[in-house]
Design a protein that fits this description.
The protein is an alpha/beta fold. The protein has helices spanning 6-16, 49-61, 78-91, 123-131, 153-160, 188-203, 211-214, 266-273, 292-296, 307-321, 331-339, 355-358, and strands at 39-43, 64-67, 109-115, 138-145, 165-166, 170-173, 215-217, 223-227, 230-234, 249-253, 257-260, 326-327, 391-397, 419-423, 439-443, 451-453, 456-457. The protein has two domains: 6-203, Rossmann fold (3-Layer(aba) Sandwich); 215-457, paralog of FGE (formylglycine-generating enzyme), CATH 3.90.1580.10. The protein is elongated. Bound molecules: flavin mononucleotide. The site of flavin mononucleotide has 26 residues, from helix 2, helix 3 and strand 4.
Amino acid sequence: MKKITNAAAMMIIICLLSSCSQAQKTSVDTQHATANEKILIVYLSRTNNTKAIAEIIQNNVGGDLVAIELRNPYPADYKENVEQVSKENETGYLPPLKTKIDSIEKYDVIFVGFPTWGMKIPPPMKTFLKQYDLSGKTIIPFNTNAGYGVGSSFQTIKELCPNSTILEGFVMEGGKEKEGKLLVIQGKKRNEAETEVKKWLEKINIVTASKEKNTAINSIGMEFINIPAGSFLMGANDVKAYASEKPQHKVTINKPFYIAKHEVTQAQWEAVIGSNPYILDRSNPYYNLPGMKKRITKPEHPATISWNDAQAFIKKLNEKEGHNHYRLPTEAEWEYAARAGTTTAYSFGDNSNKLDSYAWHGEDFASGGTHPVGQKLPNAWGLFDVHGNVWEWVQDKYSDTYYAQSPDSDPNGPANGNQYVVRGGSWHETATSWRSSFRKAYEADYRGISIGFRLVKTAD
Ligand SMILES: Cc1cc2nc3c(=O)[nH]c(=O)nc-3n(C[C@H](O)[C@H](O)[C@H](O)COP(=O)(O)O)c2cc1C
């Protein structure tokens, strides 16, 4: 072990005192479903038990996996290691790290994993927590130990990071190096760990529960995804935002709801209404353009219909299934589900060059048209075509000044108005914006070839 003088120890402590505790918490309360958030999984592991848990976490949530390495590694001998740790704890020495994490600010959620050492958090993890500014971030501890528990380690994280949100940690018995049992989280025990980690991640809402539990399928094969209650920032304040999208404001959706993965298809329309939507008169002449009918009258393409038509469809589907659970999303529910936890221009970030991967957009009337639903990438909550293919009617009436006075809890649109909101953007190039916050209005009886809908299903 290197001899460290008290003065040197003090220097290091002072140098590292940037600490998570300085900045103010800025994040808006969101639920912790994070498929869309940037995740870092950082861990310390000597005999690879904590590493196994870190890998399992990564398999479930994605994110960047980083092993903490020291500038001066601990002794290989267990006893010497215990002694060194004990001294470091006595003096408050923070061993410098070899590992450097680039742009910590880009991470929203940080899993912090370590073994229990001397019934405390290992000193290198203290170095990590003090070296980086983690304020405003969500920290999720995980631990393996020899069967004596986490000791004071989780409490130490709370103390070192008072301005972070600390979620319930994961604890599992790992090795017993003292008795020569090194890596035990392997084979059958690793399978058990996988099950336990999954349960924990669901409990703390980091991953939505297993697909079976969180999706539903109805009598006409329409698939739904459960969206948890939560808060988000609705609208946009940036330069690209129109006045109708401002002010950006916090909105809370108080109840979970199911929203369809896809826009309603013509096949689904026919299953409920009994005929193809294109036998209905169109408010615009585009359906009769050369080739258009052939290109867009297809069972797996979205049904493009009026707001009134959507209500007729919903009424019939509710009757068919004998309840009153289907409706259009409110405008707030739509944007909440479309954003999937993001505050960026699109559900995939701010880079419009990526639009091609996520959306049918920007086509012309000569060769373009709708496309089968679900062919592009979904957003982080599993919803397809939110930024394109067809605009989607929502339940709310439209007012371009609504956001200035809308309630912050379950808003459902202005009481009066002649027009209803459409959201999301369409296949057609004249759709001026495909951003998550963009809003547009049409009369309830407008029936074109670029506005469809997506259903919400509620529990009551
Ligand atoms: C220096 C040292 C101190 C330890 N102290 C404790 C302890 O106080 N309580 C405990 O339950 N396990 C203790 N252990 C055991 C480890 O926490 C346990 O083996 C853990 O699973 C190791 O994780 P790893 O494989 O990721 O290194 C200690 C191990 C070491 C090396």
